Every structure is written in structure tokens, then in C-alpha cells.
Amino acid sequence: DHRDLHSFLHDALPIYSFDKGAFSHLVKACIEMCKKCESECKKHADKHYECKACMEACQKCIKSCEVYLKS
Q1: What pLDDT was estimated at residue 6?
Q2: pLDDT in tens, 21-70
Q3: 63: number of CA atoms within 13 Å, CB side?
Q4: How far is 65 from 57, CA to CA, in rounded Å?
Q5: What count of other Cβ atoms lies within 10 Å of the Cβ of residue 37?
Q6: How confident is the model at residue 12 (pLDDT cuts 50, 70, 90)?
Q7: Fewer Cβ atoms within 10 Å of its own Cβ: the N or the C terminal residue of the chain?
Q8: What burial class does residue 11 get, using C-beta atoms within 10 Å of its C-beta: 0-12 exposed, 13-18 middle, 19+ buried?
Q9: Burial of 43 (0-12, 13-18, 19+ CB in 10 A)
């Protein structure tokens, strides 16, 4: 579930804040996972609410992660 992944990243940030490089690897992995999931959900988003909701959650997570990496 994407909310669990988002919660993990949010909770892990203070732990890894002293080492942005280490946390960046987790964030990059999250982006890759979300891009794959988004792509798969996009195939069914027009037919299934759950797929659309999941696709949108992935898009939000990707944007948030990209903002973090640019900071």
C-alpha cells in the first residue's frame, strides 16, 4: 500500500537526515517502484476506481520524492 510506503519514508527522514546520500537511495528506489506501479495501474484506471486511485497515489509519491531529491 502506498500509504505505508509514504509513512515509512516520512518516519525514516529524521533518522537519515544526517546522511542525505543514504536516504536518497531509498527515495530513488521508491520513485522506481511507483513508476512501475503507476504504469500498470494506468492500464486499468479508466475501468477500475482502485487502479485510478493507486495511479494517482503513485504520481503524488513520485512528485514528493523528486522534490526531496532536488532540495
Answers
A1: 64
A2: 777 888 899 899 999 999 999 999 999 999 999 999 999 989 988 988 88
A3: 6
A4: 12
A5: 18
A6: low
A7: C
A8: exposed
A9: exposed
CA 21 to CA 37: how far, in whole Å?
Answer: 25
> In this structure, what C-alpha cell is assigned to residue 71?
532540495
| pLDDT for res 33 | 92
- The string of DSSP letters for 3-69 reads HHHHHHHHHHHHHHTT-HHHHHHHHHHHHHHHHHHHHHHHTTTTT-HHHHHHHHHHHHHHHHHHHHH
Residue 3 phi/psi, 5° resolution? -65, -35
Determine the Cα–Cα distance for residues 28 and 36; give it in Å rounded to an integer.
13
- pTM recorded for the entire structure: 0.75
